[in-house]
Write a structure and sequence with these properties.
Its EC number is 2.7.7.60. The protein has one domain (3-139, 170-240): Spore Coat Polysaccharide Biosynthesis Protein SpsA, Chain A. The protein contains 8 helices and 12 strands. The chain has helices at residues 32-42, 63-70, 89-97, 119-130, 180-189, 204-210, 230-240, 242-251, and strands at residues 3-8, 26-27, 30-31, 51-58, 79-84, 106-111, 135-141, 146-149, 160-164, 170-172, 176-179, 216-219. Strands 1, 4, 5, 6, 7, 10, 11 and 12 form an 8-stranded mixed beta sheet that branches. Strands 2-3 form a two-stranded antiparallel ribbon. Bound molecules: cytidine-5'-triphosphate (CTP) and the ligand C[C@](O)(CO)[C@H](O)COP(=O)(O)O. Residues 8-15, 22-23, 57, 85-89, 92, 111-113, 226, 228 line the site of cytidine-5'-triphosphate (CTP). Cytidine-5'-triphosphate is lined by residues 8-15, 22-23, 57, 85-89, 92, 111-113, 226, 228.
Length: 252
Amino acid sequence: MSVAAVLTAAGSGSRLGHALPKAVVPVAGAPLVVHAARALLAARGADASRVVHLVVTAPAQHRADVLRALEAVEAGDARVEVVTGGRTRQESVAAGLAVIGDDVDVVLVHDAARAFATPDLVARVIDAVRAGHDAVVPGLAVVDTVKRVGEPRGEEGWPVVETVPRAQLRAVQTPQGFRRDVLVRAHAAGAARAGDEATAASDDAGLVEDAGVAVWVVAGEEAAAKITTPRDVAVAELLHGPRSGARADEEA
Ligand SMILES: Nc1ccn([C@@H]2O[C@H](COP(=O)(O)OP(=O)(O)OP(=O)(O)O)[C@@H](O)[C@H]2O)c(=O)n1
Ligand SMILES: C[C@](O)(CO)[C@H](O)COP(=O)(O)O
């Protein structure tokens, strides 16, 4: 089974507030995009399938930074390519998808912002597509009670409309995996939404659902949490940085 991946790294990282785009910000010894690329390229499905073509989306003004960062990735015989991303994540994924050949069976879509997702998670997603699911997402059970709210009332707050039964909810992560033809059709059908953050899909599985195709959830992992704010970076440094190993040694 031939697998390609689109690694989204074209966002600005406005909530992180760093001078560089988020994907090239160094965390735990390497830029986020490098950690994410390494996990994708290290993964092996049960039939030894692996990513043979990695397409990374970069901000137009920072293509050179992304290319330079990726020089640190040992790609073996996999092809690594950088394309310019779009105005939204959906547009960026579409730009990546456009350069993937039709000889590819499975496409993974992964966020550089989920830099510490493990190769095991990547392999789990590949295997679920291989097992016959058209679209697969990793998900975690929701630990908070979730309320649906109505329109805000000034600065005061929001009225609660209902409590959503959380046993049925999953917080969805990346990498998400798709049969290539299914993902291409879903992006084509949703293309009119792509240019504006207000209408764009927040994940690729959402586009596939809208196209009437069933989506399957496999177990996600805490390591695949999205790095959005400076606090997330601080947590990632503690969990994955050099001091995390030192602490483990001290405790042993
Ligand atoms: N036009 C865009 C916007 C986002 N992304 C990517 O989509 C992923 C998820 O987006 P998010 O975490 O929201 O990143 P940013 O858009 O960079 O962050 P912010 O919303 O804080 O600006 C990231 O890997 C980001 O690089 C992308 O490739 N193209
Ligand atoms: C794709 C995603 O990571 C799944 O949870 C998420 O929807 C990305 O959202 P963002 O608003 O673009 O960060």
